[in-house]
Write a structure and sequence with these properties.
By secondary structure, this protein is α/β, with parallel strands linked by helices. It contains 4 helices and 6 strands. Strand 2 and strand 3 form a beta hairpin.
Length: 138
């Protein structure tokens, strides 16, 4: 049987682009995590799904605990890590380095973003796409 690959799925976007909102909505959609940690508005959640480990971490701002949260996911032997970063700089470098040093395939995406009365519907589209991708990778 072929060994399944491990993935980091990273929402790379500008500040105030809805990364945290999107990933918190994904956490809600995935249901009750096996483990959860809160860092102010940010969350780190671990799920056991189909005998695989999925971690969602909303930390992605400079000067946050992003790197530590990613390394904790690796230590937990997460098969899929969903995280956030800015489009350039330290947070993006952290994701790239941790993926390459730990054998993760890296999938970059940017959540849909719209500042209007329809922003929740747009977030929901991003969450559904992430949820579907996770299930295909499991």
């Amino acid at each position: 049987m072929e060994k399944k690959k491990n993935y980091i799925i990273c929402d790379a976007a500008n500040a105030n682009w809805g990364k945290t909102e999107t990933l918190n909505a994904l956490i809600k959609k995935l249901g009750n995590p096996s483990e959860i940690k809160k860092f102010g508005k940010d969350t780190w959640a671990l799920y056991k799904i189909k005998e695989r480990i999925v971690v969602v971490s909303t930390q992605g701002d400079p000067k946050s605990h992003q790197k530590e949260c990613l390394l904790e996911a690796v230590d937990e032997k997460a098969n899929i890590i969903v995280c956030a970063s800015r489009i350039k700089g330290t947070t993006k470098d952290n994701v790239r380095t941790i993926a390459s040093k730990n054998g993760y395939e890296l999938i970059w995406f940017q959540n849909f973003h719209l500042k209007s009365n329809y922003s929740q519907q747009i977030t929901d589209v991003s969450v559904e796409a992430l949820y579907d991708l996770i299930n295909k990778l499991l």
